[in-house]
Amino acid sequence: MGSAVITNPADDALLGDDYLYAQLAPERPTDPSDIVAALRRIKTLDPLSQEEIEWLARNGTERMAHDGTLVFHGGSPVHHMTILLRGEIHVRRNTGPVSFFIGRSGLVTGKLPFSRMKTFGGDGYAVGELWTLDFDESTFPTLLAAVPALTQIIVSTLLDRTREVTRMEQQAEKLNALGKLAANLSHELNNPASAARSAANNLWTELRHYGDQKFKLGSLCFTAETKQAYGEWIQSVRDLLQPNGRPWRADALEISSREDMLMQWLKQKGVEDGWRIAPVLAETQIDLPQLERLATVIQGEALAVSLGAFASALQAERMTDAVIDSTRRIFELITAIKDYSYMDQAPIQEIDLGQALDNTMTMLNSRLGSVEVRREYAADLPLISGYGGELNQVWTALLENALDAMALCADKQKSVLTLRTCLSGATVLVEVCDNGPGIPEEIRSRIFEPFFTTKAVGQALGLGLDTANRLVTKHKGQLSVLSKPGETCIQVRLPIEQTGAY
Questions:
Q1: Ramachandran quadrant class, 132 (left: phi over 0; alpha: psi -120 to 50; beta: rest)
Q2: Which reaction(s) are listed as its catalytic activity (predicted)?
């Protein structure tokens, strides 16, 4: 692809597109036979007779431009149908997800008869030596009367153009959704991965310190009675640390206060490494009476070594727990991704709707922030048959819309997202509700229209709810909305029996 180079596009912009269009006129007209030959090479025009081709050659207006020439401005009025005889036009948009489009040689483009096109979709540049044959919209009635076969060609071209634009926009929507999903997953995986890496690095250092402490402890040559007493103290303290398997929890202020108290006690006992021991013990339920009980059995340097070895063991265990918890979280995320995408499964699955909603929430967890999520899942909800991956697209679209809506008033009230499932006759009902500003009544009937969006240009294509509606319809279901200020519920009804749905 060549890059467009314009000597002074600002001057052209000031003079307008009529000036640009006039500058494309060739210095000398091309011989009509050469134009006829060029038209005959265009496959789209194959159905036209020789007489019709010759009429086009005689009545069209030639335009030529060198590589890099600005052909038209985005947003300016379009008045011509254009047949590209040679070269390409590259169209660049400054806004929107589809920022680039190529018009290649042989294309019939521009404003076609029966088209509602009013303006150019972006700035167009010539790539290569451009040669076109143009027909002003004022000549369209005469054109169609003189070349009747062109009507079918125009209609087919319009349909193809609509399908292509829709495909491009839908592809851009999918890529946009994939980008959001990747960003969410990256954020979610980064936290446990960073925690696991940090804990593993610290664990390596702590294990070396623990080994040194155990060596010093072994060199003390305790008597059998002292060993037994020390072992019994450790066992009693460990039983206290996690009663009923629940770890002790305390706030930062209480831990800080306990650390100061323990530092003072260790200093009184002559323990020089109190700065290393006190922070570890402060995060446990060990109190001074229990430490005094150990101090009655072991004194002096032996007390420092004994507490140091015990504290180092606790610290190593905590770091190991951090690695285990972090890797467990990573495994859960990977499992959620597999469940969300239904990887390695048949196209049609038996779907647990509550689990499907939770898997989708996992993908969007980084966006939840301070959002309160309320889950109201019916316990007796049956599994339904369907395309799990496609239904997850539905849940993703509905949840993202709800989060976007609540973000509009997040500074004024607490955001509450409610997910609800229940039986409703012969269908299962899924509701995604938010306490955002609501959908204005005047646009409520349009929210499922393709390309309709209330978001700023470039932020969305308006295909999310349209896609969700099509996928729900594919499952013989129904998508509806109930909305008022402060409460919006999108309802999805899916039949339990899917006989004939696929």
A1: beta
A2: ATP + protein L-histidine = ADP + protein N-phospho-L-histidine
The tokens describing 7, both together, are: 């000597």
Residue 123, classed as helix, strand or coil, is strand
Rounded Cα distance between 315 and 303, Å, is 18
Q: Helix 274-282 vs helix 300-341: angle between axes, to the nearest 10 degrees?
A: 50
CATH of region 9-148: 2.60.120.10
Residue range 61-97, pLDDT digits in tens: 999 988 988 888 888 888 899 999 999 998 887 655 5
Question: Confidence class of residue 1 from pLDDT cuts 50, 70 and 90?
Answer: very low
Sheet containing 478-484, strands listed edge to edge, beginning at the edge strand earlier in sequence: 372-377, 416-424, 427-434, 487-495, 478-484
Which among 23, 123, 30, 116 has a CA at the least distance from the CA of 72? Answer: 123
CA 490, 98, 183: angle at the middle one, nearest 5?
60
Buried b (16+ CB within 10 A) or exposed e, 233-254: beeebeeeeeeeeeeeeeeeee
- Classify 346-495 by CATH class: alpha beta
Instruction: Write the pLDDT tens digit of every residue in 157-194.
Output: 888 877 777 666 666 666 666 666 666 677 677 778 88
Percentages helix, strand, coil for the chain (3-state, rounded to 5) are 50, 20, 30
Residue 333 tokens, joined: 């995320």
Domains 9-148 and 346-495 in one fold = no
A 10 A CB-CB count for 36 gives 15
- Bridge partners, 384 (sequence order): 351
pTM, entire model: 0.45
* Domain ranges for the chain: 9-148, 185-330, 346-495
Helices and strands counted in the chain (H then E): 15, 13
d(C-alpha 345, C-alpha 356), whole Å:
15
Residue 105 corresponds to which tokens in the numbers above?
Answer: 């040689």
How far apart (Å, rounded) are the C-alpha atoms in residues 19 and 215? 90
Instruction: Write out pLDDT tens, residues 223-247.
Output: 888 889 888 888 888 877 754 434 4
Q: What's the rounded mean pLDDT across residues 360-383? A: 85
Q: What is the 3-state secondary structure (H, E, C) of 386-423?
A: EEHHHHHHHHHHHHHHHHHHHHCCCCCCCCEEEEEEEE
Angle between helices 388-407 and 464-474 (to 10 degrees): 150
pLDDT value for 396: 86
